[in-house]
Amino acid sequence: MIDDNSILEKFVLENDCNFAIDNVDFKTKEDILEECRKQFKNYTVSGLHTCLCCLRILTRDNILRKELTSEFFLSQIFKYAFEYNCNHEYSKTSLEALKSLSNILFKESCVIEPLKAMGLIKSVMESVDILIETENNERLLLCLKLLFLVTALNSASRQELIKSNALQMLMKIVKMKSSKITDLNVSAEALKVVYNILYSIRDEDVTKELGDDIQNLVVMLRCILQDPMLNEFISYALVSQVVNVLNIIPKHLYKHLLDGNFSDHATDNLIKDSAPENKTNGISSIEILIDFLHSQLKLDAGKESETASDIRTDERICPILNCLTRASKSNRRIRKFCRLKVLPYLGKDVKRLPEDGDSIRN
A Gene Ontology molecular-function term (predicted)? Predict the structure, then answer.
């Protein structure tokens, strides 16, 4: 007779990479769900891991996923998602629970309030605080995805995160994780949560209250843009998230994209002297944003048409244009630099037609 663990293990082996789970007999999936229910009531560590793998797979089924939103399954998944233990087997189990929780939350927003009642935000924040100093990026990324989903789908959660000083913690993650190429996706995910939080606090009084934090955030984003590691924009996701956040900061804070020692009379010289390999001048972060815009425009220049997998042109270009427009409107020096960079003094270039070449002017 085949034991329950073997049945679950066989299901995982056959369906772990099966994202078209509808092709599996529904009765089989129901039986697996029932076996998982039994496992939760009387489990072993290894059996629990297999059980949670099964639940992660079942979250792909539109009908059975709703079963997983029941109080019993939701409370069990939540419990093991945040049961952090140095034991390797427990760590794997916790990871599977986090994946299941993320999948359920993404498709079934009705679970947000029950999860919040269980202490979701507090548990995620505590986990993030532990994980910042570790190399466990996979778990940290899942926690950040949960925060992103909750803040995107539930406006009240954004206010809770503001009160719990989440902005400072997220800034710490971005600062620490943007120093390694392997960690850039973690920084990008953290900035997505920052965007959601800032989107909800554009009210002047709240913005004033968090003014120092947001100012520090802008300075940090400037440093990210100026980081030589991001030359050639190797991480589109991170740079685009930087742009998104810059799009919703108060306009008066754009001046912090300029280095402190930058002087207005230097603008014309910067246009002449700036070079891609030496972006250390006072306005280099603005130049990098223009270069980023240029790089995205050049992507389309070589294509006859967009494929289904391409990010739409307007989705790539418009945020950068909007960011540069807001920055230019807010600061005279930025405005002058952008004008001279995009529409430079022609000089000898007057002999060349505007449509000839691939510079930002063209």
Answer: G-protein alpha-subunit binding
Write down the pTM of the prediction.
0.84
pLDDT band of residue 203 (cuts 50, 70, 90) is low
Do 140 and 96 touch, CB atoms closer than 8 A?
A: no
The letter for the amino acid at 77 is I
Of 57, 37, 20, residue with least CA distance to 4: 37
Amino acid identity at 283: I
With a CB cutoff of 8 Å and minimum separation 6, the contacts of 136 are none
DSSP 2: -
Token digits of residue 183 = 């960690």
Tokens of 216: 């520090």
Contact status, residue 36 vs residue 78, Cβ threshold 8 Å = no
Neighbours of 346 (CB within 10 A): 11
Sequence-separated (6 or more) residues with CB below 8 Å from residue 171: 194, 213, 216, 217, 220
Are 312 and 297 in contact by the 8 Å Cβ rule? The answer is no
Tell me the two tokens of residue 336.
Answer: 């002058």
Q: What is the pLDDT of residues 144-164, one digit of tens each?
A: 999 999 999 998 998 888 888
pLDDT tens sequence across 244-279 = 999 999 888 999 999 765 444 444 454 444 444 444
d(CA 33, CA 29): 6
Q: Which residues pair with 275 in a beta bridge?
A: 278
- Judge whether residue 19 has pLDDT over 60: yes
From the centroid of its chain, how far is CA 24?
33
- Using a 10 angstrom Cβ sphere, with 0-12 exposed, 13-18 middle and 19 or more buried, the burial of residue 249 is buried
Give the C-alpha separation, 173 to 192, whole Å. Answer: 12
Q: Does residue 55 contact residue 73 with C-beta atoms inside 8 Å?
A: yes
Integer Cα distance of 328 and 316 in angstroms? 19
The b/e string for 144-167 (b: 16+ C-beta within 10 A; e otherwise) is bbbbbbbbbebeebbebbbeeebb
